[in-house]
């Protein structure tokens, strides 16, 4: 059976060009980039070329890019690094209630360390209100961290406006842009952010590599102590193959970003229209300020897990929310934050479209989904009762 992969927000297939660019560094180009002989220096050169590509993709200069082990490390570093560097200035950090766990759990850790965290609420679409941020900033606020685009519901936050509000009060701004880079044009100079997190495996690159953009001149504490790699700011022998793959992936995706956005948006809107024809269904997240590949929908009287398993039997891979909550029975914190009642949050699906999806695949899903939803609803006593009461069908 042909698999239809619609979970590109969890991870993306690696592109052949990316894999090919990485292979020599697992093989004969294995030299340590810190070594002085040419073997090592070749590896060093490959890392610096990748750094140029990452910098160019987001409008940064290459000395503002620091490679990490992925989005999670970049988020941890930004928050803990800024918190400890600025702890004499204040201990208050502001974030939002819809962040990825890499941010939320780091904030909880910092709370245990004596920092004070404000979790800003969001509206029904998942948007953070800049006025709400303005009200939350206090004299002891040292950092604001708000994600660029939400990994579950796809909502794109008004980062430029939020940065302005933070900077007016002299507060640093970090954004988790793991879902945004490669899916919307990202320019750190236009956004004016101080720090920005990226990850390679969400943009057709390898897992286990990412980067943190740190604005020139900004000093934050280091997370890892050790060697002098990454200009003394991130110790440990570099993941050379991973970094090279990240460079190739980000260059490829940003070269064709307009086309990428156009294609994904078309498929997304088609999928949304098709799904919303099913009765008792709603779209979660903002209808327009939304990632081009994100569809998040709730089906009343259906359990999301059953829906995922039924789709899996048809070869269709989708998610109930974020991959990190798979297997847990707690409903998504994002869906609760936009005000969905628990039972509706439980009947939610996230379908995320990527480069490799075709219109035929979307047609197949639109064709199969109504039957599956209907079959599951027939098993729901609640749905039976509603049907009788409203004389449906
Ligand atoms: C995937 C993701 C992360 C974590 O990135 P990893 O590279 O998997 O550690 C962080 N934030 C967001 C918004 C994500 O989607």
Automatic annotation (TrEMBL):
GO CC annotation terms, alphabetical: L-cysteine desulfurase complex
The protein's assembly and partners: Homodimer. Forms a heterotetramer with IscU, interacts with other sulfur acceptors.
Active site: 324
Source species taxonomy: Bacteria, Bacillati, Bacillota, Clostridia, Thermoanaerobacterales
Protein name: Cysteine desulfurase IscS
GO BP terms, alphabetized: [2Fe-2S] cluster assembly; amino acid metabolic process
Organism encoding this protein: Thermoanaerobacterium thermosaccharolyticum (strain ATCC 7956 / DSM 571 / NCIMB 9385 / NCA 3814 / NCTC 13789 / WDCM 00135 / 2032) (Clostridium thermosaccharolyticum)
Gene name tied to this protein: iscS
EC number: 2.8.1.7
Residues binding pyridoxal 5'-phosphate, per UniProt: 71-72, 151, 179, 199-201, 237
Family to which the UniProt record says this protein belongs: Belongs to the class-V pyridoxal-phosphate-dependent aminotransferase family. NifS/IscS subfamily.
Record keywords, A-Z: 2Fe-2S, Cytoplasm, Iron, Iron-sulfur, Metal-binding, Pyridoxal phosphate, Transferase
């Amino acid at each position: 059976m042909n698999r239809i992969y619609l979970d590109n927000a969890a991870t993306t297939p690696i592109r052949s060009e990316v894999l090919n660019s990485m292979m020599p560094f697992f093989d004969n180009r294995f030299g340590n980039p810190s070594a002085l002989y040419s073997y090592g220096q070749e590896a060093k050169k490959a890392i610096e070329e990748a750094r140029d590509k990452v910098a160019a993709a987001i409008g940064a200069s290459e000395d503002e890019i620091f490679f990490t082990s992925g989005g999670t490390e970049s988020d941890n570093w930004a928050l803990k690094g800024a918190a400890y560097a600025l702890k004499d200035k204040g201990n208050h950090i502001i974030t939002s209630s819809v962040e990825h766990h890499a941010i939320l759990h780091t904030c909880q850790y910092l709370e245990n360390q004596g920092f004070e965290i404000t979790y800003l609420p969001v509206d029904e679409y998942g948007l953070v209100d800049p006025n709400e941020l303005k009200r939350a900033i206090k004299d002891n606020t040292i950092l604001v961290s708000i994600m660029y685009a939400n990994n579950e519901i796809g909502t794109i936050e008004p980062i430029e406006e939020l940065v302005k509000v933070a900077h007016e009060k002299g507060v640093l701004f970090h954004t988790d842009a793991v879902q945004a880079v490669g899916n919307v044009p990202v320019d750190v100079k236009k956004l004016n952010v101080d720090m920005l997190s990226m990850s390679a495996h969400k943009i057709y690159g390898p897992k286990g590599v990412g980067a943190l953009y740190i604005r020139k001149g900004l000093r934050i504490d280091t997370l890892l102590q050790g060697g002098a790699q990454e200009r003394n700011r991130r110790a440990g022998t570099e993941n050379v193959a991973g970094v090279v793959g990240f460079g190739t992936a980000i260059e490829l995706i940003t070269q064709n970003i307009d086309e990428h956005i156009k294609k994904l948006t078309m498929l997304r809107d088609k999928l949304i229209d098709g799904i919303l024809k099913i009765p008792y269904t709603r779209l979660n997240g903002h209808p327009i300020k939304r990632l081009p590949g994100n569809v998040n929908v709730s089906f009343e009287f259906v359990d999301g897990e059953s829906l995922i398993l039924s789709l899996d039997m048809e070869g269709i891979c989708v998610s109930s929310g974020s991959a990190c909550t798979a297997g847990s029975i707690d409903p998504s914190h994002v869906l609760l934050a936009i005000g969905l009642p628990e039972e509706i949050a439980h009947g939610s699906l996230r379908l995320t479209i990527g480069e490799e999806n075709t219109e035929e695949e979307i047609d197949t899903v639109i064709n199969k989904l109504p039957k599956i939803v209907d079959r599951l609803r027939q098993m729901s006593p609640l749905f039976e009762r509603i049907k009788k009461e409203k004389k449906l069908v």
